[in-house]
Amino acid sequence: MYIEKVKKTMNLPGKVVIFDTTLRDGEQTPGVALTVDEKIRIAKKLDQLGVETIEVGFPVASDGEKEAAREILSLGLDAQVCGLARTLKRDLDAAIDADVDYIHTFIGTSPLHRKFKLKMSKEDILNKAVDAVEYIKDHGIMAEFSAEDATRTEFDYLSEIYQAVDEAGVDYINVPDTVGVMIPRSMNWIIKELKNNIKSPISVHCHDDFGLAVANSLAAVEAGAEQVHATVNGLGERAGNAALEEVTMALIARYDISVNIKTQQLVNISEFVSRITGIKMPPNKSIVGDNAFAHESGIHVHGILENAETYEPITPEMVGHTRKIVLGKHTGANALRSKLDEYGIDLNEDQFCTVYDQIKNLGDKGKMVTDADLRAIAVTVVGRVKEEIVKLESFAVMTGENVMPTATVKLSINNEIKAISKTGVGPVDAAINAIQSLVSEDIELKEYHIEAITGGTNALAEVFVVMSDSEGNNATGRSTREDVVMASVEAVLNSINKILMVR
Ligand code: KIV
Ligand code: ZN
Fold this sequence. Notes:
alpha/beta; TIM Barrel; Double Stranded RNA Binding Domain; 3 domains; eight-stranded parallel barrel; three-stranded antiparallel sheet; 17 helices; 17 strands; about 20% strand; elongated; binds 3-methyl-2-oxobutanoic acid; binds zinc ion
């Protein structure tokens, strides 16, 4: 509504092209290194998602980078396959040799880069940029030019170098905010000014050092930028780049701009990239985080159940997500009723009040209430299961220096006695391995937290675990004991019993 008022003052393009750099800048995320095979798998997903260009790497950097580019090219994807290259001949030749259809060439232009990194004059840098673009174009390849650290470069010089590569036939002018120093209004200003003198389409590449990468990318689009560089999950050097999922959804849902992205695949690709890179998304991550469509407070859940638009700006289905009603201390009766309905649990008014009180109590104690916890509480209240399915009969553990920690566990499972010994990296691990192999390998430990409640060697230890099974049942378990290993065993059994109860 308010956007419509300000849109009139913008120079919005009808369509924005997504240049994905997950495999290049995203791979520069500290701790991330992708194999050729992993790059291929991510490239296929990016292509299905609909990005126009995939920057697959820096071919001169290694044989693996070149091989990745070649292998991705051989897939015959719809997306253009781009390689990064400095304006050096050996970089450009490496990219040409990898057969890419698109070369993104760059050279530092800011006073800092000129003086400390390149030790080159403005004129030499400009000539290098023009030569590189001409060399790429002479080979019949698409060329994009970036003035590295553009946003800390004197504007007249920046404009001069961009005009020179524009005249040399570059296909895209890219404006990198290399260290994320822009604010939306300054990004808007620079793009607007550049547009006055440049014919080629303008692209932006924003880093997130101040959490402004997405806002700055959008500000560039408001000034007429036609392409945005982005990465899945906002991966990238230091604090990362503009997150593809956020830029895309803002452009589509807020600006009404056409973007060639199949938005229903966004959560899937986010999870895929997270698994491969090992970089987990925080639950409150926009668009793709676990909590992006989760509602806890009674007031919100009430609104959502009446009309989801009350507390959701877009539908979860639009990005391949699912809505979650979370139970906790802010839970209202409506939320609880809807959850119980979802699981087909029918309670009378007294039973409902008991379950409601227990959930509130757990929430007040700062405890998380998972769906399996709720089902276990409800099942117990209804009285269907009065006994634990798995009970500990006996337990012994052996550990020390130069011995393999070994746990021997005897359990009663549905009144049948079973025993086993298992090793592990430590006594807790050995005990959990033994329990799992007796009960079900399908139930896995997802979280394990331990806290010493009192001081001293006889301190009380509180162990909190979350276990889950392949059907998606999660349950918490908790125990407090002086013996850490026993507390762990009890917490695990507590959680396993809840999962078995609802299966
Ligand atoms: O952030 C940056 O400046 C870059 C360049 C290679 C464009 O990633
Ligand atoms: Zn970058």
